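chain below, 517 aa
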Amino acid sequence: MTFFRLVRIILISLRFRLDELVLSSIKHPVAVFMLRIVRFGRPPRTDRGVRLRLALESLGPIFVKFGQVLSTRRDLIPLDIAEELAKLQDRVPPFPSDQAAECVRVALGQSPNELFRQFDKDPVASASIAQVHFAVLHDGREVAVKVLRPGMLRIIEKDLTLMRVLAGLVQKMAPDSRRLKPREVVAEFDKYLHDELDLVREASNCSQLRRNFGPETGRQNLLTVPEVIWEYTTTTVFTMERMRGIPVSQIGRLREAGVDIKDLARTGVEIFFTQVFSDGFFHADMHPGNIYVSDAPETLGRYIALDFGIVGSLSEHDKNYLAQNFLAFFHRDYRRVAQLHIESGWVPSNTREEELEGAVRAVCEPYFDRPLSQISLGQVLLRLFQTSRRFNVEIQPQLVLLQKTLLNVEGMGRELDPDLDLWKTAKPYLENWMRERVGYKGFKQRLDQEAGQWSQMLPQIPRLVYSNLSRPDSLPGLQVEIQRLRKAQEQNNRLVSALVAVLAVAIGVAIWAIAGK
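prediction:
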C-alpha cells in the first residue's frame, strides 16, 4: 500500500511540475542540465506556489495540513510559496453520521441518543481531522460535539513515513538543506498532528484560555471562550458549550447587528497583546473561520474564540525579548535591537554589534517613510527573522508561530478597519507592560510568586547556619596542605637552580676550550 501511495505522489508531482520546482533550487551543473530537459516543450504555465498548493490538495488532507504548517515557516520558505500555501483549506467531505455516532459510543460508553436529549446527525462543520455536531444535554444545555475521524492515526503514520523519506532525499540533494531543515520540519509537523489527534489536549487549551479571560481577571468583556464539558470529553470526542455569533469576516452582518467595527478592530489587537505579554499563552490559529462576534444584546460585539488545536506559549524570557524589541523598534533604537539579538544568545557571541545594527536599520528604516496604517508589525518581524539568517540565527518555533498569528491579527484588523493604526494601539500597551514589570507592581508580583518557596526555606536557615558553624574547622588541614606544596615547590626550585649551575659550567668550559684552540 505504501509503495502505491509513493507512486501516486510521484505521478502528482510530475503532473504539477514539481520536478521543475525542485531542480530549479539546485545549482549543480547536472541539475541545470536536467532542468533544461524537463522544461523542453512544456514550460510551466502557472506560478510555483500555485502548482505546489494544487499538488498538496490532490494528495489529500494530511498533505493539506502539512502545507498549512509549512506556510507558517516563512523564515524557511520563499514568501510567494508561503502566501500561496496559506490559502490551503480543509475541503473535506464529512464522514457518515453512523460512523460519528459509533465513535461517540466507543469513546463515552453510550450511544448519542442515550447521552444527549438531542444529537444532530448532520455535522455543522467538517475538516481533515474531525467534524462537529450540535447536541443538547439532558439538562437543557446546548453543546457542540467534536468527533475525531476514525482511523486517522493509521493514515497519518503512513503519510508521515513517506514524508520522512522525501525529507531525507531533500536533505541530501538540496544545497540549502541546512537552513531549510526538511527533517526538522517534518518532525515538527509530526508533533503538531499527534497533538491535534488528542482532543483532551485541545480541551485543556480551551479551558486554560477560558480561565485567562474569566470574571476574576477583569477581561471577560474582551473574549468569550466556551466551557468544556469534561464528562463528555475523551481523546477522540470533545464536547463544549455551543457558541452563537457572526463570523468576524461578515462585516455587513456585523454592522446590521449594531457592532462598532472600528472598536472591534482595536479590541482584537488588545486581545492578542494581552494573550502574548500578560499570559504568555495565545490562540495561534486566529483566522476568520475560528473567530466569531456575539450578536446577543447582553454581549454585543464581544469576540468568541473557537478551535483550540493550535496554541502558542512564551517564556518570561521570550516575552521580555519581544517587548523590548518592539519598543526599540518604535523608538528607532536599532543598536538596542542588535544588542537584544546578541544578549538573547540567538546570535553568535562574536557577532559585530555595529554590523548587526546596520542590517536591522536597513530592514526597519524604510517603514518609517510610510503612513502608519500601512506598516505591518508582522512583516517587520518576518524581515528581522530573514535578516537574522545572515548571522546564523536559528529562529525559535514559538516566535515563528507568534509571527504567523500576528499577521493573521493584522489582516483581520485591517479588514475591519483599513485605517487601523496598529502602532498607536500596541505601543501604549507595551510601554505600560514594561513599566509594570520593572516598577513596584512587578516587584510585588514576583515577590508574591516566590513567597511560597521562601516560606519553606526561611525556617531552615537557622539550622543550616548552625550546621555550617558547627562543622570541624578545615583551616588547619588547609594550612598543612599549603606547607606541603610550598616544600615541594622549594625542592623543585633547588633542583632547577642546580641544573642551571651545571649548565652554566658546561657552557663556560665549552667556551674556554674553543678559545684555547
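The chain is about 60% helix and 10% strand. Residues 73 and 485 are 61 Å apart (CA to CA).
thats it, cya
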